[in-house]
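Moderator note: this is an archived Q&A kept for reference. The question asked for a predicted structure of one protein chain; the sequence and the answer are reproduced below.
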Amino acid sequence: MKKVFFGILFLLGLIPCFPQPPFTPYHDNTQFLLAPPGEMDIGLYGFVNPAVLSYVRSFDTMTAFSNLADDEYTFDRFGFFLAFPGLGFGVMNRLGLNDDWKATYRISSSFGNTAFSVGFGYEWTEDASGIFDADNLYVMGLLARPFPFLSLGLSGSTSFSGEHYEAVFETGIRPFRADFLTLFADYALQDSRDFDELLDGTSSIGLVARFPFIEGLYCSGRFYPKTLDFSIGLKISSGYSSLAVVPHFSSGMGMTRFTYTMRAGAAEPGLIDTLVTGGGNYVKLELNGTLEYQGVSFFRKRNTLLSLLKQIDNAGKDPSVAGIAVNTSGLQADAEMLWEIRRMLEDFKASGKHVVIYLDNGGVNLYHLATVADRVVIDPLGGIMLQGYLAGFSFYKGSLEKLGIGFEEIRLYTYKSALESLSRESMSDANREQYDRYIGDIYDYVKKEICDARGIAEDEFDTLVDTVIRFNAETAISHNLADAAGRWDAIEEEIEKLEGRKTALIPPEAMMSLKGPYDKNWGVPKTIAVVYALGVCAMDTGIKARSLEKVIDAAGEDPVIRAIVVRVDSPGGDPLASDLVAEAIERCKKKKPVVISQGLVAGSGGYWLSMNGDAICTAPQTLTGSIGAIGGWMYDNGLKEKLGITTDFVKRGDHADLGFGFALPYLMLGLPDRNLDQDERRMLEDTIAYIYKQFVSKVASGRNKEEDEIEKIAQGRIWSGLAAKEVGLADEIGGLWKAIAIAKEMAGIPEKERVEIVELPAVDFMSVYAPFLSLLGITVNEKADGMVDAGSVLPEAAAPFGPLFEYLRFRLDNNGKAMPILDFEMMDVLLGERNF
């Protein structure tokens, strides 16, 4: 409001007291428009109020002309206007009394948002002889839309000499908070000498209405009280172009003038697109590459999960879209993300639209996604692998013994198996039990969805998995796993078979719903923040708890953000890092709703991050729970002797040598000289027990349950997302989009009301410029979980063992710490390097 107040003072300051202006008055310029420039569309692209340029999304042009009603073949005014986001240019030609043309030029710019924008312009005039008028103009405009139902516009111009001015005030009201009906009024004042003359300006009142349930068809009426003149108008938009006609009437004289405008360039919801295409377009989704959370690159297009979900949602709402065609070739995504895409496409189909999916080669998870389609098209040389599911682990106990590295597992809880890969040669019974349940849940769920979608009996599916395994195009079609064989470049032929007619295949950015003008909605949209907590729980890597805590606190204080969704994809780690973020979520939810969306891995410390949400959404494939803590101690057991290294020390304190040992800087590995003694082991056990007790207590508080209820499902046990909902660790089976919908509902935002989604934390400099830095020989090695790529720092001979050395380094960095963390293998899953 301060900005509006000072803007008004500035405009009033433009008012000197001198005779008639040498420029064309406001109401003469706006005769081309159905409504004042701040109340509909983008006005004359800054030619009147430059602040409207903040609403321009892409390049757009407009041509305007007029003629007297009694001389329909002679145009006495002609204008051409063009605009880019924040920048506009226009020229208006007028025929004078001596049949000479006078041209007025204006260049304008603006900055701001949908709530408040400011614009500036410069105008000069040229007569037929080419001599510039001495009184060129400075122009300023303000446009405030604090609410969806209110628009306030101010614009002013003053001559270089300061002898002339014009000030314009306009307002618009939308009683239904949408463009169905807009009421407006404006008032223009030129060169007033004293206060009494402030009431001697020109004004108009009127309305603009959009025909019910029809996009792109508007009518208007405008009345000028001082002269009793009036006009009516009609605008028809086809999507990328529009035509408006405004006949003008004078009291006692009848019709006096026609004005016409033709617009072309930017897209907007249009009548012809809806009626003529009949919703016949198919949106093509090219999913080649890795599906990421936040991906920025100047060298190639990257798909992100949220952007893809938005595209599908927009396609479902777009009346010009009949279906979606998906190219899955080269798609790299974990099972949970693929499920989210499938669920989103299911919702899309519920609107009566169709999905066609092309795949060349895929396993069970990608095929599970493909079965959502009305028509599955497999490449003639492609194949489907239905090998089932497996949870397997590598065990390095023997390797450590041969290397001369000792390891002792400190395990107090039955199912907490995070260190078995270093302490055992095979799975413990408890670990086998929990992972058998996990993959059983996933297999049964995926089998049912595939069978329901393809009309296959479940026992037949089991037989196919156990006997055929791999299906080429011919066998896939014969077993009803696919509908046709073909290449992606011929997908339109398959769509034609499904639709019974030819259709247009368009990219997502060509959808009308994505390119509609900002002006269609007024005010600041309600905002939901999606906050990412990705990777190991650590203070300055992985989730980066130290900064993530501040991000969540700031989002909690931001009045524009109505709700927060925290996306958790983490195997756990440092309990302090987990707790800092969990407490920030607890503080935040006292101010606004906080909903948790769990990715593929949200167990142990990842569940610690989740436990305080107002609601927890999990996917069937999510690995969650694992409420527990574990510790281990790695030490020298002969490696030092093999390498010919000796160590020595002096100390004060019985345990001062705890952790002392040799180091190999090149490999970034160092080992303590000795194992824990009895007192040190008891200390670590006490720490593990304390963290476990805190974990159980905090989960009970966050989930509004008794501690003994949580104890029954804790003990470090992992659960699938399906089982987590059954035992009360989650509230909904759903992905990121479902979590956003729940957050929207909790915030009291109507289901159909648009919201803005912001992603936090913002992508940092190193992520954005990594490709450019690589051209300079600078490599950014930090991975999504904050761990360094071992292959980039290990000698060539050791590179094949990179993951092991990477994990050993991680364990040594946290040697002797009690941690709520999942198995080593789960980190690979999180990184997308391994998929069940």
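Archived answer notes: Residues 429-454 form the longest helix (26 residues).
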